[in-house]
Fold each of these.
Amino acid sequence: MRIVIVGDGKIGSALAEQLSREGHEITIVDRSGTPLQRTVEDLDIMSIEGNGATYATQMEAGVDEAELVIAVTAQDELNLLCCLIAKKIGAKHTIARVRNPEYAEELPLISDDLGLSLSVNPELICATEMARTLRTPSAIKTDTFFGGKVELLKFQLPADSPLAGRTLMELPGITKAKVLICAVERGEQEIHIPSGSFRLQAGDRISFVASYAGAQQFFRQMKLAAGRVRRAMLIGGGRIAYYLARQLVEAGLDVKIIETDPERCEELSVRLPKAEILCGDGTNEAFLRACGIETTGAVAALTGIDEENVLIGMYIRKTWPKVKVITKVNRTSFQSIIDSMDLGSVFNPRNSASNLICRYVRAMQNSGSSSQIETLYKLVGGKAEALEFRVSESSKLCGVPLQELKLRENLLIGCIGRGGQIIIPSGQDAIEPGDSVIVVTCSAGLGRLEDILARGPGHE
Amino acid sequence: MNKRVIVYVLGAVLLIEAALMLLPLLVAVIYRERTGWYFFWVLLGAAVLGALALRLGGRKRSAMYAKEGLIAVALSWIVLSLVGALPFTLSGQIPFYLDAVFEMISGFTTTGSSILPAVESLDRCMLFWRSLSHWIGGMGILVFMLAIVRMDGGQAIHLLRAESPGPTVSKMVPRMVDSSKILYGIYFGLTVVQIILYLAGGDPLFDSLCNAFGTAGTGGFAIKNDSFSSYSAYTQTVTTIFMALFGVNFSIYFFLLRRKFDLAWKNTELRWYVSIIVISTLLITFNIKSLYHGDFGYSLHHAAFTVSSVITTTGYGTENFDLWPEFSRVILALLMIVGASAGSTGGGLKVSRVVILMRAAKAELRKILHPHTVKVITVDGKPVSGEAVRAVSTYFILYVLIAAASVLLVSLDGYDGSTTLTAVLATFNNIGPGLGLCGPAGNFAFFSPLAKVVLCIDMLLGRLELYPMLVLLMPSTWRKK
């Protein structure tokens, strides 16, 4: 698919990398040549220097023949203008990043006129993911499938857990909860898509699929359950903090926001009347105690500086192990180190946004073919993926018991959704038309459900 | 350094060369030439070796960075020439292997300098292989490889970057594989048109093919002892036009194909390139008119052919321009240095670099007069970054230094200044004939082995735009850590 990305910032470059890996033809446009050079250095993409909101630059970038234009510059207005012009020139779909909440609320009014296919607000997406995690505080990370009916949860196995040292086959003997472990991370590099004989170790970071109730039951039986979070403290009062606070307040939580800038505090106080806004330095230990950190159920480190967030996260994990910690990290380098540190749940706004767009692109690509991707999540810093497919009538996988399917290596079917029912599949279950299927895999770029089958020799 | 990925690339190149040798083999079968057997044996050897290298390097071909790309390209071209030279020596048609290697490097780098006093004495399959090497070398063997072999994503860009002529790699479409396909498509298309035009003029098929290959790659190996003199004026005119066409940046043709005529028309490099050709042709025409009894048309015809041949670094000749007045000879020597457009099959310094150098010099001069002037150098209405200007300047300095060092080494042979200097210029810029003893009427056979090796390296340096070969020759590349 021909895709033009306007704006080579954090999201732009992440998208370029992800989408070109998936085999799309990417042209990236930016005003300044310096970031372009860095992006183009290692990627097989084309770069154009110029103002992406002008006709001339867009023509040069081939927008007239592009299927999708993604405008992710730093300015909302520019992004909207880009999409407007791109649509005029002949781009089939357009995606704009619109992060200003004032525009975001009015977007439904104008997005038809602009011909906008999707608007993306990275901070809002990230905040929503964080809020979801707070719902199940036992998990480090939570993703949802089937419109929220099934969750993909990640947690770290404590040393005293009854699961440590057991194989997956023994799992049903330990817990009655219906869960399916679909990915295990070990150390900094290893990732396994486990089979039945796989033996768990203490310290493994385990991802599993379950319904909400199943997950709660599982955590209770594993004595990992943490009570519902009733008080949350957000350190740093940026955009994500605002969106997160709004969602948490709506859910009935007590929210405290700590922010150093008095003006921003006043602004937040106007927009979030129910939240408690505290003006002070969130990296000051005494101040945190004074704010009542001991009584809070969750802390989110959301300042603009990664190092501060990491330190706050580590400090709180160490001092109050019962407190649920969310750490925001903007940079994606040194991912393996970040993963190996005890920071609670780590979120990266740029990844959240680019994953959402990639999901959209895949869905677009498959809208014509037999099986569609509904949802896609990157796990473990992009090393594995969880995908949700809808099964069509004509799929050749239908009716075949799973144990007879010859699947690719490092791939498993995590869950089948059938008419509101959730099936954690065993070897005897079969896929039927109309089902939704969750697939977890290490190989990137699955486009259709049929791709889960191992290919014959000769293909790679 | 990842040696496996380099071995893998070399293997692929050997296999492609083996496949290409099928063509001279076919020629040998058609003309019933016994020397064709040597192509068969070399082809077989190259195929086996290539397949082995693929297996050896193919297990885990990851991590190719700029350094691996540069080295792989430089080694590919050397291996290509060493293997390509074997049939000549084995068959005894060029008895000395160094001479055969010189001839083959000259072929693949599209230089066209020959050590053969009389090319007509070669078998047809040998002549065909010589000309074909121009066609392969013109667009680049690795570009060809990338068009047919799948390499992992972003890594192969380093190969393309190392092989493509010009200051920057201008991609025409996002994906490199598609870029390579388009390049070869245009190249192939233009060559076919030229062959058809030759055939329409009544030239034999064999001549048409060989001459078209030589023109397309801007090579210059002729299949007649007197190069192009004995062909009809029609054939010569077709050659003049196509030489000039192959010296144009190929992205211009892509603009035309996509009907973006204004982008093509407003291209600075194209305008300079055309202007230089027109002005030089006119100057030389008036300068040589008296030689041809004042016949303006005749003078123009040969001046145009020679200018087109020299600026695109092809090196075909209709007249012995070594006998022309000094003024014309100096113009030709200057054209040798300027060379063709970036992104074409021609060699030399490249018009776009000259444009940037000129504008940079002008800006610097202005700065001396008005120290507070801010002048950004632009090409095609786009600013050229200080870094790009610096890169071009560095390139120019290296270019001059290497040329000077080569002249020094070649001068050990003790030939006259004009011969020594133009021998280096003609090989370094991939032109072919120089002036003096190595002029259109002469050849390069008389040079000592040392001088031949130096000229061989110059040809490779010139074709690959210095850096790949320089990296290869740098001791730090090979030092064990």
Amino acid sequence: MRVIVAEDSVLLRQGIVRLLVDEGFEVPAACGEAGPLLLGLVAEHRPDAVLLDIRMPPTHTDEGLVAAAQVRAAYPGTGVLLLSQYIETTGTVRALADNPRGFGYLLKERVADIGELAGALKRVAAGETVVDPLVVDRLLHTPRTAGPLDELTAREREVLGLMAEGRSNEAIARQLVIGGKTVETHVRNVFTKLGLAADLLDHRRVVAVLTYLRA
Amino acid sequence: MSVPGVLAPYARTRAWPTVWRVDRQGKRAPSLRWGAAAAAAVASGAAGSWAYAQAGGSGADIARDLAVGWAYAGAGLVAWWRRPGNRTGLLMVAEGVTWFLGNLQGTSVPALFAVGAWWEALNMAVLVHLVLAFPEGRVASAFARRLVVFSYGLVAVGGLLRTLAFDPGISTDATYLACHGCGPNPLLVPGAAHLFDAVDAGYRAIGWAITLVMLAAIVRRWRHASVARRRALLPAWIAVAIATSFLLWDLIHYALPALSGPAESVVLLLSDLAQAAVPLAFLAGLLRMQLQRAEVGGLVIEVGADPDPGRLREALARVLGDPGLRLGLWQEEQGRYADAESLPVRATGSGSTRVDSSRGTPLALLVHDPVLAEDPELLQAVGAALRLALENLWLRNRAKEVTSRIVQAAEAERGRLERDLHDGAQARLVFALMSLRRVDQGLVGHPDLSLRRSVAEVESSLKLALEELRGIAHGIHPAVLTREGLGPALAALAQQAALPVVVAADPRRYDPVVESTAYFTVCEALANAAKHARARAVSVSARHSEGTLVVETVDDGIGGADSGRGSGLRGLADRIAAVDGVLHVHSPAGGGTRIRAELPCG
């Protein structure tokens, strides 16, 4: 699997590339900016996924987000995994809602866990959606006045959280060590209690859940 | 007495600019000259009244006469006392003293009769002097000076010639006195009495001519005068009108005695009453400028509130009574004074006053009616008020400028610090974590299990450090605020809050400093709501209204927050004031807390 890395810290960039190579990824190119250079590299190498930091030179604000949108518009088949120093729900969730397919958002320090990073890259490359567990955690634990979330059982909340992270039913079943049918029941219950359309799948389901949690 | 002799005392007053001197105890005491003038006025009045009585004047006549003379002397003494630098007071006293000279013709003492007959019209010459010298106290033009000298000369020479031919026994109606048994006249030249009518007619005619010339001179001055000067000249006008009417009556009386006979007493009364009012009018005109100084205090209050150059000029014009006043404020870059329309303002001789700052640098230039230079104290007071207002304005602008620079610098510094943490420390920590993971991989299957445990401990330590670092960096300057603005930043804040927070924010961007101030205002308000107010829910709104960002945080807690006590709220007030904003804290006990910040945002 081919991945292009865009990270402005040389140290981190080299560290990430080495980790990915060790893990069996092919990294045809890596760069320290999110502008035309990155787009050129993507055009040249046509990677399966691009791993990039949200904050990139020159302004260190939203260069990564802009580049992500450009890459995904030009190469819909290329997955994009964004790294962020902070758990930000607004801008990233909005970006997700615009085009959730093959898009992921992870907290920066997750790169240290190669298993997690590799899994996320593979999922975005496959068109799935990845949302950092901390983002979901924050959304789930935003203090709010009484509402339908209170009616969920502990297990249903767990399932809701994994759905928000972009996990499929099978992944949820694996994670919670329960049967596929049970997961389907939990998912259906959650959707009913929250008043969401029950037939949503993959990234559309993620967006619906995140949108619900943000409201 | 020669004419220079008459003028000499005025010339000498130059050496004594103040009538009041300060003695060792620091008390003000009238000068000898002032006292002597007062005594002369009293003595002259007494002598005049005695002489009037000798000529058979009634009590009413004497009282009327005394009233006019002493009105001049009294008003003159007051004017002299209040405006020591101005010779108008002295001239008025002189008018009051000479007023009574003609009465001396009523006595049977030959020497006194001679003095009275000779100097009867001296007060008219003094009046000419007074009118032409008013309000500055000195005769400005060479022509007017010649006219004054000529008037005194006419009285000295013409009066003498007339007296030489004046036989009171023959010309019984030559004076305003019912002269029975006046004289004799020791100066009468034997055989000259038949010339009296001709000399008298010539004397009066020349007096008339002088009056007309003076009238013309004053009309000319009036036409060229500003409003301020016209106001000051008004008493002189009244004096001229009365003197003219008096002379007119005199002419009628002289030419057609039969016609004026029945109305004589009425005209005389009115004339005298009006005459008595003249010195008061002079005094009022003279002191009016002093009253203006009292208005300067009001000026300070008025311009202190809003020192806008246009309004400043208007206020100054009003206080100085000079609508044509121009105010030039010093423009450092151009090195000149400019008015509210940016037109250059230049100094013009006596008609301009420079106002410098307390450090000696130029502040402003007032170009005003030259007549105002006559009242240096008023100009000084106005200058002081102007200096106060402008320095106040300068300091305020400077304070605002400096505060704004400091706030911006602090804001930029926070942003830089946050980025440094992100680019430096955080990247290194993540890298360390990555390396540690490799170490951990390498230790798989290692016989010493404690090694892997240590690695796990270091890893959790590193993760904690990363988390703390994230919190610190976010607290210093939230990246979302820079990237997405106030609304999303407040929404993010609401998610992390310890209690339910509803956010309603207009989706728009503001100046970074304004956004940051608004953000930290809400942070502080939320902290207060969570920690002290025991609130159950908070609503936050950020709305833009007419150039102002209004950020309001309302909770349903116990209230009682005091911006004066809590250091958090006080710091907040300072922070908001630094961007020219206003903080309102409404927190009645038991009634929740409403924290409202109004931030100007262009």
